[in-house]
Predict the 3D structure of the following.
Amino acid sequence: MKRELGMHLGVGLLRAIGTLPYGVVRRVGTAVGELVYWLAAPRRRVTQINLARCFPQWSSRQRNAVARGHFRAFIRSFFERFIFWYAGPERIRRLCRIEGMEHFEAHRGQPLILLAPHFVGLDAGGIRFSLESDCAAIYGRQKSKVLSDAMTRGRTRFGDARMLLRNEGLRPAIRAMRDGLPLMLLPDMDLGARDAVFVPFFGVPTATVTSISRLAQITGAAVVPLVTHMTDGGYVLRIYPAWEGFASEEPEAAARRMNEFIEQRVLEMPEQYLWSHKRFKTRPPGEPGFY
């Protein structure tokens, strides 16, 4: 009871901060992120391990700089989510512009999978996209019901935006696609060895889900990647051309292609990728854990 009350107060405070001028919200989020970097030792350790595995050629100074930048960007994005969860369409459009909308329009009304990797601007880009099109998305429930409810309401305010729980399997996703909704998938998390293949991510064998290739094969959907980039003035949602021939690829080849695409985007903005997630928790048989 006390914990949920605290969460209600916290959500209320963050919502109030979100009404301040954007520059103020940005600076507050960045400053708190710097503080969290020093206080959240377990997540700092996960981040440093991930960066060391992916970029052994970097100096420790370079990896530490990216790790600190990640915490600043991630916590800043968390504060700014309360703008996107509660502000009106006009403010959202000002804070997040879209590039490459023609790549989506070329497939509007057809079975479509939107591949959205875990960069810190994910929420901002997803909500901005919902102003242009109805959409369904698969997500995992948060530990806090208060935060989970705020997130769900924030992400489903505009149009026919459906949130599908990850543990419900693929059937609700297929149903949404058959109803004409594009499906946004966030495929780059370690969800265990089930329905996953080990393919390289920056040279590290990584448990990578095959749900995108399976859904593409079942529905004949085009796969259009979209990535949100955080800037000093807000966000840019970049939509990329559809991947040709993806639905016909074997699951391992498709997963490898997906990871290679994400690698390219990570190199463009390394501090904005979700390094604090235990991306390499599941290891191939016989290999010791990283964490």
Q: What stands out?
A: Residues 2-272 form one domain. The chain has eleven helices and nine strands.
